[in-house]
Amino acid sequence: MEEEAGVRRWIVDITRWRPSPDQFDAAAALLPSHERPAIARFVKEDDRKRALVSRLLQYSLVHHVLRIPLHQINICRTPEGKPYLVLKDCSAFPNFNFNTSHQGDYVGIASEPICLVGLDIVSISKPQGETTTEFISNFSSYLTDHEWNCIVRAGTSCEVLTEFYRYWCLKEAFVKAMGAGVGFGLHRLEFHHEHWTDISIHIDGEVTKKWGFWLFKLDEMHLASIAKGHPEDAVSSYKKALSTVSVTEEQLHSTLESPEEAFTLWTVEQLTESME
What we know:
Blueprint: E1 8-13, H1 21-28, H2 36-40, H3 45-66, E2 75-77, E3 83-85, E4 97-103, E5 106-112, E6 116-123, H4 132-137, H5 145-152, H6 157-178, E7 189-194, E8 197-203, E9 206-219, E10 222-229, H7 236-239, H8 249-257, E11 264-266, H9 268-275
Parallel strand pairs: 1-11
Antiparallel strand pairs: 1-5, 2-3, 4-5, 6-10, 7-8, 8-9, 9-10
Helix pairs in contact: 3-9, 5-6
């Protein structure tokens, strides 16, 4: 299916990329110099790879979608760390925004032309040194009673763990779409669903129709979620970075009713070639 204008869902499996030090440095050299210290500060190679690929995805996607020359792309971050594109004018995509996520084997990015978009990737890793119940109990204060009951009744310990990560993934995608920081109260959010379709959110006990959510199974050990919603729900620092766009009910409904397509898998080599 042809990609909708301004809508992208890209993902990279970093385990498939085993660069030599020179190859890593060559890929990093494609980025603006101010981006490189944030990559170099990581000690572990996998963490450096995730940080590098996350930035390659951002610049490659903006270059690919908006046709902006790489040296003219200006990506900044809010005080909460949310990346955003500084764009003078783009009538075709009046509120173009994107979000990245990385955990485990995958790094991903999602973009939207009008609505806010949030992406979260989770790795369903078994707890070390504690039971599944003990592990998820550490997060109970971030879950509502309804969510907790759904999780603990999911079945086997593996099913319980997966159920927990589904809720966690959705909460993170919503918060990231808004541009909120780590201090946002995740317990204020409650998700309802029909077998993990028709997912809806209650905020402080009130259901909202301004948001849509989708879950994806990337493989046996990784999940991804997409959150799309009204730009008016962005936190103040992020709202300042966005265009002042009036989103009609028809536009919002059309975006939230559109089917979510699967992610497109990219290799790091494809990303770097598209930037050269």
